[in-house]
């Protein structure tokens, strides 16, 4: 509980909220702003909007919060004891609030002739198939983030670009089938504003389970660490495991 007393902790939480506001505002504006939603121009526009916004925001807030901007990434790090339960909880709450706020802004400034708000919906596939798409697309995203931010690889300044490209790839592959959620907070925002929750569980179950699987897969199979699980568990219950892990896209220092 000591980290909750630090101003740096609350700056990080605020950064996650602000990041989702801008990300969702940018992505949804691109999704509903096309005059003629023709394939492939519309899908490419959305993919680039979400991907480039992710890259930009990672540079802006990576050194403040680690630039998770996705509950699936936060949950994955929690599952492998790389952040504390407290930080994960407040990050997820901030991400959801930011996504709702960003969606509300788009809803308020959109032209009256546009009824859509970019709510993710299944397109010609079953919920189980949608779950599969969301799971695999989020799996590659979380694996990418964990890989490029592993300080043993020293990727450094290229991590935000890789993060953004992974988001772009996910959208190019999944927009035509699920709308490409790969981020429960992004899916929640417009769905809550428009009260449209058809098959909404797909956009939570798929990404969140993929986040956990990706983190466990990377940390215990693809690139295992030497730390004992007991040490990680202790760190999880205290203030987060920090010896071999840096914040996602920048160094976060807790100072009073």
CATH topology grouping: Glycerol uptake facilitator protein
The CATH architecture name reads Up-down Bundle
Q: What is the total domain count?
A: 1
Return the CATH class: Mainly Alpha
The backbone outline, from C-alpha atoms, is globular
Can you tell me the residue ranges where pLDDT is under 50 for at least 5 consecutive residues?
241-246
Q: What are the secondary-structure elements, in order, as H or E?
A: HHHHHHHHH
- N-to-C CA distance: 14 Å
Organism: Kryptolebias marmoratus (Mangrove killifish)
Keywords: Membrane, Transmembrane, Transmembrane helix, Transport
InterPro entries: Aquaporin-like, Aquaporin_transptr, MIP, MIP_CS
GO molecular function: ammonium channel activity; carbon dioxide transmembrane transporter activity; glycerol transmembrane transporter activity; water channel activity
């Amino acid at each position: 509980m000591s980290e909750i007393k630090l101003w740096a902790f609350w700056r990080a939480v605020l950064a996650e909220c602000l990041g989702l506001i801008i990300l969702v505002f940018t992505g949804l504006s691109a999704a509903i702003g096309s005059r003629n939603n023709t394939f492939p121009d519309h899908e490419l526009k959305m993919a680039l909007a979400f991907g480039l916004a992710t890259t930009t925001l990672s540079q802006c807030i990576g050194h403040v919060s680690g630039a998770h901007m996705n509950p699936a990434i936060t949950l994955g790090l929690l599952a492998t004891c790389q952040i504390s339960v407290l930080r994960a909880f407040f990050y997820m709450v901030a991400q959801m609030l930011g996504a709702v706020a960003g969606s509300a802004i788009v809803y308020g400034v959109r032209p009256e002739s546009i009824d859509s708000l970019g709510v993710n919906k299944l397109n010609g596939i079953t919920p189980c198939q949608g779950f599969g798409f969301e799971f695999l697309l989020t799996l590659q995203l979380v694996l990418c983030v964990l890989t490029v931010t592993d300080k043993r690889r020293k990727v450094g300044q290229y991590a935000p670009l890789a993060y953004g490209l992974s988001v772009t790839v996910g959208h190019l592959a999944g927009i035509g089938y699920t709308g490409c959620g790969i981020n429960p907070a992004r899916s929640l925002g417009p769905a809550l504003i428009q009260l449209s929750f058809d098959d909404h569980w797909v956009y939570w179950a798929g990404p969140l389970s993929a986040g956990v699987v990706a983190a466990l897969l990377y940390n215990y199979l693809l690139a295992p660490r030497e730390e004992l699980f007991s040490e990680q568990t202790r760190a999880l219950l205290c203030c987060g495991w920090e010896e071999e892990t840096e914040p996602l896209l920048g160094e976060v220092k807790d100072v009073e």
